[in-house]
Design goal:
Layout: H1 3-6, E1 10-13, H2 15-31, H3 33-56, E2 73-77, E3 87-94, E4 99-107
Parallel strand pairs: 1-4
Antiparallel strand pairs: 2-3, 3-4
Helix pairs in contact: 2-3
Length: 117
């Protein structure tokens, strides 16, 4: 294996991902200050998890074969029995450029559609 193939992928969080995070934050803000503070801690943890995992293994998630996320890959964050605390992350791998675009994050129980502003 060449040195080039051992180099980690660069992970980029796209604008759509940020819009999704804003929507999740609004949900927790409506629940009160304690849930919102919990979300801020969890948000940092989720972003670190995504970045670290995808930089080293961008093919960890299966390819999406249908629906509005067709052509992307999907990974899951969380193992909670409370489904709203589990998240689906959608991303695209650009192998030649060694870049991963993280596009979307949704609570696992929501409808799986692309987010628009």
């Amino acid at each position: 294996m060449s040195e080039e193939n051992n180099r980690p992928f660069r992970v980029i969080f796209k604008e759509e991902f940020d819009v999704c995070l804003d929507r999740i934050e609004r949900f927790f803000a409506e629940q009160g200050p304690e849930p919102l503070q919990w979300w801020y801690t969890k948000e940092i943890e989720i972003i670190d998890y995504i970045e670290n995992l995808l930089a080293l293994n961008p093919y960890v998630g299966p390819a999406v074969e249908r629906g509005s996320f067709k052509g992307l890959r999907r990974m899951t964050y969380g193992r909670s029995r409370h489904v709203f605390l589990n998240y689906l992350i959608y991303y695209a791998v650009h192998e030649q450029d060694r870049v991963v675009d993280v596009i979307n994050i949704l609570p696992a129980r929501t409808k799986r559609k692309r987010v628009t502003k």
